């Protein structure tokens, strides 16, 4: 074997690149490439193995082994030395291959006469494509430089595979593994099911020029791109809108990594060996991903993750490819992203069928927006951005938290059946739209919907809701870089009230702070944000924004009946203080000659257990109380609503929680205070029927839940169900769920 100098390496890469321009099919190119490599390296054998499916490699071209073996010799992942290279993603360099553990003798190739073996993986960011092997008769081990030279060649082969250089003819099944079905088991962010095509929020950068003519010019391009990138990072760090602690930390890490000498040196070496600047960045990104997979330390994994992000940014800088590649959005787009902010998600408007994120949480803004848009969201979906390509078929099962990428036909079939069944049921429910939710014995339940966006309002008609039981006002604050102007809010609230057309809308004042950080508010470094400085606590401590919002609501109402509720009250005094603020704002508006509502209903959200024990006077003083079950439950059971490990651990229908609800129901009955329930549980049929049977006669839920809940109420007898619940509790059952489920099943 001859040593490859830098200029030999460049000549070799140039010859490889030239094969791209040659006539002929993919097989001709592969054959030619193995000849060139064997010739340049001075070895008897050069072979290329590519994946036929995620588990099987196939010999696709060879110089030196028997030609009959091509497309016949196959091995499983992990099998033989080639399979080991493919599985580990690491090269094997051996002077005496037959004595290596796992060596597999393949008589059809005539391989036994070759003693030394070097195999390097052919892979491209996160994706294994195959293995490149050179072998020679003499027993010798190859130097690190030779191994490195082969890795550079393998990088170019990977790019060529991506560009489809080897497909066609006998290779039509071979090449990029991202043609195969993959399933991701994540977690539910928002229920529902959708079928569509992948739309990457940040599409992968396509490198079309893996080999470069002029290493000096490439090195200069790389230097320039790094300098610009560093400039951008500094700019972002200096930006006055950057106050999010996590974002700052990530940028600081980027800054450190971008200045890393080792990273740049390795890329410059790759360029000297003949790669283009882009291919050099990718090669190092590959290496980082490999280390990332194996890193046992979560901190180190995070940093490698940051390096991965930084490489993507550098690639975009080099190629000039922004997030907008000019690609056309497919029909029924399903957004796939590492993470996404609420404003960006809203920018997609109503086009999306579903969203799949690698990160995210149930309580994240993205989840709030998908809920408002009624589209399924799956979070924690592995490394899907590395696997998915724009336009790939995708199924999103928000109920199970599962995603099928490029699904088998049988899976897609079953999935379509499920969607069809849901659509069928929706049709049935639509026929109930104008019917009241009355049970068999004539008791009425008022079903309202939750909303938070203008985009939600059309559902008010479509779902047959009696009104908006909860209008979350924080989205307009979360999606802007500055505090919205009062006038903007007036216009928005006015449009909401207009759309409601006389139906009641309970506007909830801002529930921000802590976990829902707005860009223009100084972040509070709180150890336990859900129990921190949030919602009305912020409103009372910084009354400027609260007053402005209340003014906007009253002006939007323009004299119409208005209903306002305050979130997250722990003590009656907080409610009284908020109510005083509202009444003062109202009086001032009146003094200024503006119309004020004659009917102003002021309510409290019951989200902390303490309010269940507030004095009777508090219940009398509230015009209405709405139970925010999402928060109430997390504090009642001390189980974080966003923590996957515990959030489903405690049953809402556990006797202890029901006892607590009954206490509130009874107290509201005594003071004649209207009571509603507006957490997610109100939209779950079994839970909602139980609440109604216990006496909560106003339920506010996602619009899509109104049909199913109404359907059940109309078939049930709430008095009978109450007895069933009572019997289960008397019998000592901890949760009444089995009893309620069985009652409903027999309707
Ligand atoms: C709740 O806590 O149940 C609620 C409705 O408010 P949010 O989900 O916005 O905290
Ligand atoms: Mg809440």
Automatic annotation (TrEMBL):
The keyword RNA-binding belongs to this UniProt entry's keyword annotation: no
Cofactors that this protein relies on: Mg(2+)
Pfam families, A to Z: GAF_2, PEP-utilisers_N, PEP-utilizers, PEP-utilizers_C
Protein's cellular compartments: Cytoplasm
Domain (GAF): residue spans on this chain: 25-171
Keywords recorded for this protein, A-Z: Cytoplasm, Kinase, Magnesium, Metal-binding, Phosphotransferase system, Sugar transport, Transferase, Transport
EC nos: 2.7.3.9
Major site of localization recorded for this protein: cytoplasm
Catalytic reactions on record: L-histidyl-[protein] + phosphoenolpyruvate = N(pros)-phospho-L-histidyl-[protein] + pyruvate
Family: Belongs to the PEP-utilizing enzyme family.
Name used for this protein in its record: phosphoenolpyruvate--protein phosphotransferase
Organism, scientific name: Thioclava sediminum
């Amino acid at each position: 074997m001859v040593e490859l100098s830098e200029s030999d390496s460049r000549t070799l890469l140039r010859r490889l690149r030239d094969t791209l321009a040659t006539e002929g099919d993919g097989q001709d190119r592969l054959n030619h490439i193995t000849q060139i490599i064997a010739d340049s390296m001075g070895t008897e054998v050069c072979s290329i193995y590519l994946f036929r499916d995620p588990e099987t490699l196939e010999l696709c071209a060879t110089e030196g082994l028997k030609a009959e073996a091509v497309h016949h010799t196959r091995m499983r992942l992990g099998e033989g030395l080639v399979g080991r290279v493919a599985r580990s993603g690491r090269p094997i360099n051996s002077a005496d291959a037959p004595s290596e553990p796992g060596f597999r003798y393949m008589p059809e190739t005539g391989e036994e006469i070759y003693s030394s073996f070097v195999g390097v993986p052919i892979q491209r960011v996160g994706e294994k494509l195959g293995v490149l092997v050179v072998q020679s008769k003499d027993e010798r081990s190859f130097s690190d430089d030779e191994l490195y030279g082969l890795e550079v060649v393998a990088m170019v082969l990977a790019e060529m595979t991506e560009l489809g250089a080897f497909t066609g003819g006998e290779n039509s099944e071979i090449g990029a593994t991202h043609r195969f079905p993959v399933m991701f088991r994540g977690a539910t962010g928002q229920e529902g099911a959708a079928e569509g095509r992948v739309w990457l929020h940040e599409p992968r950068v396509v490198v079309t020029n893996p080999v470069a003519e002029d290493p000096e010019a490439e090195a200069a391009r790389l230097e320039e791109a790094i300098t610009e990138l560093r400039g951008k990072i500094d700019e972002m760090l200096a930006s006055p809108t950057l106050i999010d602690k996590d974002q700052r930390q990530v940028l600081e890490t980027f800054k450190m990594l971008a200045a890393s000498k080792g990273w740049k040196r390795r890329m410059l070496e790759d360029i000297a060996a003949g790669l283009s600047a882009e291919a050099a960045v990718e090669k190092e990104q590959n290496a980082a991903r490999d280390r990332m997979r194996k890193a046992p330390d979560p901190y180190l994994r995070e940093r490698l993750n940051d390096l991965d992000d930084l490489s993507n940014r550098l690639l975009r800088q080099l190629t000039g490819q922004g997030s907008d590649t000019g690609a056309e959005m497919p029909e029924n787009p399903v957004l796939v992203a590492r993470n996404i902010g609420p404003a960006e998600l809203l920018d997609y408007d109503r086009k999306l069928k579903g969203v799949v994120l690698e990160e995210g949480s149930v309580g994240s803004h993205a989840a709030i927006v998908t809920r408002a848009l009624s589209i399924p969201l799956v979070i924690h979906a592995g490394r899907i951005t590395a696997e998915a390509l724009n336009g790939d078929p995708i199924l999103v099962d928000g109920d199970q938290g599962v995603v099928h990428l490029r699904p088998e036909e049988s899976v897609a079939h079953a999935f379509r059946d499920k969607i069809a069944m849901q659509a069928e049921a929706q049709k049935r429910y639509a026929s109930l739209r104008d019917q009241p939710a009355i049970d068999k014995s004539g008791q009425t339940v008022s079903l309202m919907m939750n909303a938070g966006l203008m985009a939600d309002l059309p559902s008010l008609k479509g779902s047959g809701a009696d009104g908006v039981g909860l209008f979350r006002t924080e989205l307009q604050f979360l999606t802007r870089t500055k505090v919205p102007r009062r006038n903007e809010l007036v216009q928005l609230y006015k449009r909401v009230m207009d759309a409601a057309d006389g139906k009641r809308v309970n506007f909830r004042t801002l529930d921000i702070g802590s976990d829902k950080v707005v860009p223009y508010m100084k972040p509070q470094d709180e150890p336990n944000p859900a129990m921190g400085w949030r919602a009305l606590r912020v409103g009372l401590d910084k009354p400027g924004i609260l007053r402005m919002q209340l003014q906007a609501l009253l002006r939007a109402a323009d004299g119409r009946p208005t209903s306002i509720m305050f979130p997250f009250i722990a003590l009656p005094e907080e409610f009284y203080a908020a109510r005083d603020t509202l009444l003062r704002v109202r009086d001032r508006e009146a003094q200024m000659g503006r119309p004020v509502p004659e009917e102003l209903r002021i309510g409290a959200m019951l989200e902390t257990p303490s309010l269940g024990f507030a004095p009777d006077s508090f219940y009398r003083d509230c015009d209405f109380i709405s139970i925010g079950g999402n928060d109430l439950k997390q504090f009642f059971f001390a189980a974080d609503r966003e923590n996957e490990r515990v959030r489903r651990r405690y049953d809402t229908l556990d006797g202890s929680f029901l006892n607590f609800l009954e206490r509130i129901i009874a107290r509201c009955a005594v003071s004649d205070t209207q009571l509603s329930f507006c957490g997610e549980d109100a939209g779950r049929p079994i839970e909602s029927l139980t609440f109604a049977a216990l006496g909560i006669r106003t339920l506010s839920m996602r619009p899509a839940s109104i049909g199913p809940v109404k359907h059940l109420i109309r078939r049930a007898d709430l008095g009978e169900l109450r007895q069933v619940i009572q019997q289960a509790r008397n019998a000592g059952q901890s949760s009444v769920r089995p009893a309620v489920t069985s009652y409903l099943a027999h309707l």
